[in-house]
Write a structure and sequence with these properties.
single chain, 650 residues, alpha+beta, Trefoil (Acidic Fibroblast Growth Factor, subunit A), eight-stranded mixed beta sheet, six-stranded antiparallel beta sheet, globular, binds uridine-5'-diphosphate, binds manganese (II) ion
Length: 650
């Protein structure tokens, strides 16, 4: 009985406790909800009213000072920022820099946090030489350290273990042309905000970028470095970074609570930036001495000019600094892939040309300087673009077509870390194609067909869905932008315009082998030996037999089917007309023969391991490829141009 009584009393007590907890929970929820409604009410009341004070403090913020920025960028700039209107104000957390509160270095997580004052002598320490850096990698390719390096490469796409051992403020080898060294720049150049967006960047590369800017940009031009966190997940980019940044003079940190992607993140930074000129910089760069002034000078002379430094390259394995050869300019091909093109022909014979800017059909995304007002008035970045990729090509075509220009400035050099692979996984596998589709449909008019034939995945996506580009087309109209034909003829006349005639362009299918003519990726832009491979169906094997009798290959159409001995190879297409007979081919539709005009021989496909019929002795039985043979009616000499996308197409 007593036991039973005790048990009942215990149960009653537990029930009471539960009831109390329930009541308490209910009260808390009610309180929270009423607070929320109140905030919503306040916000909806505030909308039409005058702008509030620029900054409002939230006293209850956790271990850092959090400020909700409530400025309306549209009101401030007097321009239409509709692309940014979707950003809720409360999605922005802003950490101001508070100087003079230096605390001793601390260690958090796996990162040794060196506060700015603490690594003063890092500069005096000679940076590792290239040889030393190489050695560091080789030495560590053993045991646990090698595993650490491998997993760092996997995580970041570069050897972060090596990067971590290099000073955050290393000195760089001089790579500028000697004539750049003595150049004088005006004292009254515009102020600049350097906008650095990052998503899950490594600590060492991010902070090296920041210090590099602080150490090289003259204080009187550098308004601020604006770090924009695009919803990073890595622990070291949270409060440790806020703390670090709070000790840096002139560095601000904005955090987005929504993943914006490269363009969206930069547009957000631009809307919050105060400098007259914006420099968008990747979060893994290192600046040469005096990189900023030459860029600012060019923009100051013409506010519609968008400029880039020469982009040197940081090696992803060794962190060696590699100079890029001048002259160089940015271009793209018919698959809308971007390249830096080192091309001696761009340079005049004029001795001054080593220090003169070169007009560029496009600029890469690594570092680009643009007047802030021009950036906004020309439509910022396309907010319809997904996460990553293509934003630099879209900006390039738009800037040129809508009244601006682009150039590479040789006395300015910044190095970009070219990674082995992208460290992010995208939720959308076809993200790049979708971004390309937006460019094709917005900017390329009828020329877009040339793109869709070379990217059949994009073609098939486009057949089942239409991009929402209404706003961008409206922008294009309202800015009075020129058409793509103008862009091609005026800005980028070197880009070959394929003819893509039916039955004379497409994949070059071989009847005898059931394979397609192929030029393996990675064989380079200069050309090399042709091969046969399974037909890809992606557009990567597309070629075009034109009215000059050239077989133009690849997404640039800059390589031509040529012969070396008995082998078919690709070599750079001729610039002179008429085309030399070595590069001329005739397609006989009836027999399917592709006849080389100079030798009057036929193109024959040999599969790897196969033996060519005509002269078995000369060819290694294991080597497949494309060969020139006396013409026969063998199926290995029968070809079809297979167009994957119907001529009327997209
Ligand atoms: N980035 C970003 N949000 C993203 C993807 C990238 O803010 O969703 C940043 C990234 O950290 C880098 C810049 O945008 O600073 C350009 O991206 P990335 O370097 O990956 O492009 P790549 O140089 O490889 O073309
Ligand atoms: Mn990058």
């Amino acid at each position: 009985m007593r036991l039973w009584g005790k048990a009942t009393a215990g149960r009653t007590r537990r029930r009471m406790l539960c009831l109390w907890l329930l009541l308490l929970g209910f009260a808390l929820v009610t309180l929270a909800l009423s607070g929320l409604f109140k905030r919503d009410r306040e916000r909806s009341h505030q909308k039409p009213g005058p702008p509030r004070r620029p900054l409002q403090r939230i006293p209850s913020a956790p271990d850092l000072e959090v400020i909700v920025e409530s400025r309306d960028p549209a009101l401030e700039l007097g321009v239409d920022l509709s692309p940014l209107k979707t950003l809720q104000e409360d999605e922005l957390l802003f950490v101001p820099s508070t100087q003079g509160t230096k605390t001793p270095p601390q260690k958090k997580g796996s990162y040794k946090v060196l506060l700015p004052g603490a690594n003063k002598d890092a500069r005096a320490t000679a940076p590792p030489t290239h040889g030393e850096m190489g050695k560091a990698v080789r030495l560590n390719l053993e045991g646990a350290e090698r595993d650490a390096e491998l997993s760092a490469v996997q995580k970041y796409g570069f050897n972060e273990a090596v990067s971590e051992r290099i000073s955050l403020r290393r000195r760089l080898p001089e790579t500028r042309h000697p004539e750049c060294l003595g150049k004088k720049y005006s004292e009254s150049l515009p102020s600049v905000s350097v906008v650095i967006c990052f998503h899950d960047e490594a600590w060492s590369t991010l902070l090296r970028t920041v210090h590099s800017v602080l150490d090289t940009a003259p204080k009187h031009f550098l308004q601020e470095v604006l770090l924009v966190d695009d919803l990073s997940q890595h622990g070291h980019l949270k409060s440790v970074l806020s703390e670090y940044v709070s000790h840096l003079d002139g560095v601000r940190l904005i955090r987005s609570t929504r993943r914006l992607g490269v363009g969206g993140c930069r547009a957000l930074g631009a809307a919050r930036a105060a400098g007259e000129v914006l420099v968008f910089m990747d979060s893994h760069c290192e600046c040469q001495k005096d990189w900023l002034e030459p860029l600012l000078e060019r923009v100051a002379q013409d506010r519609t000019r968008v400029v880039s430094p020469i982009m040197d390259v940081i090696d992803w394995q060794t962190f060696q600094y590699n100079a890029t050869q001048w002259p160089v300019r940015g271009v793209f091909d018919w698959r809308l892939d971007f390249y830096w093109e080192s091309n001696p022909q761009l340079q005049d014979k004029d001795p001054d040309s080593a220090v003169q800017a070169v007009r560029s059909p496009a600029l890469g995304g690594g570092v680009v300087a643009i007047d802030r007002h021009f950036f906004h008035s020309v439509g910022a970045y396309d907010p319809g673009m997904l996460l990553w990729g293509e934003e630099q090509i879209e900006l390039s075509i738009r800037v040129w077509s809508c009244g601006g220009s682009m150039e590479v400035v040789p006395c300015s050099r910044v190095a970009h870390l070219d990674r082995h692979h992208l460290p992010y996984r995208f939720p959308d596998q076809e993200l790049l194609q979708r971004n390309k589709i937006r460019i094709a449909d917005t900017w390329m008019d009828a020329y877009r067909k040339i793109f869709y034939r070379r990217d059949t995945l994009a073609h098939f996506i486009r057949q089942s869905e239409s991009p929402n580009i209404t706003e961008r087309l409206r922008l294009k109209r309202s800015l009075g932008c020129r058409n793509f034909h103008w862009y091609l003829t005026t800005v980028y006349p070197q880009l070959y315009i394929p003819q893509d005639r039916p039955a004379l362009s497409g994949e070059l299918y071989n009847v005898g082998t059931g394979s397609c003519a192929d030029y393996p990726r990675g064989h380079g832009l200069q050309g090399g030996v042709m091969n046969v491979a399974p037909c890809s169906g992606t557009g990567s094997q597309h070629c075009d037999l034109n009215t000059e009798f050239e077989v133009r290959w690849g997404p640039m159409g800059a390589l031509c089917l040529d012969v070396r001995g008995e082998r078919a190879v690709l070599s750079p297409c001729p610039t002179q007309r008429p085309t030399p007979s070595r590069l001329r081919w005739k397609f006989i539709k009836l027999s399917g023969q592709l006849v080389h005009q100079q030798s009057q021989s036929c193109l024959e496909a040999v599969k790897e391991g196969g033996v060519p019929q005509s002269s078995p002795r000369e060819v290694n039985a294991n080597t497949g490829g494309l060969f020139l043979r006396p013409c026969t009616h063998h199926p290995r000499q029968q070809w079809h141009f297979e167009q994957l996308v119907a001529p009327k197409g997209t």
